[in-house]
Amino acid sequence: MRACTIRRVESLSDDERRQLADMLVAVVEAGASVGFLPPLSRENAGAYWRGVIAPNRVLLVAERGDQIVGTGQLELAMRANGRHRAEIVKVLVRPDAQGQGIGLALMQALEATARSLGRTLLHLDTREGDPANRLYRRAGFTPAGTIPNWARDADGTLKGTTFYYKVLGSDL
Questions:
Q1: Per residue in 11-66, pLDDT tens?
Q2: In the chain, what are the domain boundaries?
Q3: CATH code of the domain occupying 5-125
Q4: What is the pLDDT of residue 2?
Q5: What own/partner pairs with CB < 8 Å and gap ≥ 24 does 86-91 have?
């Protein structure tokens, strides 16, 4: 993997928001199942990133120099009975930077962040059969099951989604 740095972002500059929006458009166009369907406009992608900084969310970015090459988020469960868990969402790597270990580095950084926040259980989901399934298994996640017809694909067909979890520790 070519060196990159991963950092937590507390607020986004206009340039960071633009880079993240461009990356989101690119990964959706490349076929990623991340909650959006192609064609995704830059305006809609930008609107997503304008709302991403929130008290229950941690945003990480992977950078090479001044270029964002990847990102991932933790959504922290805030209800009293769930404050031990977090959901990993929107792990994205620019298509031209994929296959270089950035996704795994982001997963490891998200896990370390979750641990530092006292979270002991992580979960996530991804489209059945997507290459991301290999990444999540390499990162030590266990498949919990697949729900058929969970999300609509770009061609209109419904696809299954596999849910994963990883126990980080115990509150006992």
A1: 999 999 999 999 999 999 999 999 999 999 999 999 999 999 999 999 999 999 99
A2: 5-125
A3: 3.40.630.30
A4: 73
A5: 86/58, 86/114, 86/117, 86/119, 86/121, 86/122, 86/123, 87/122, 87/123, 87/124, 88/122, 88/123, 88/124, 89/124, 90/34, 90/35, 91/124, 91/132, 91/135
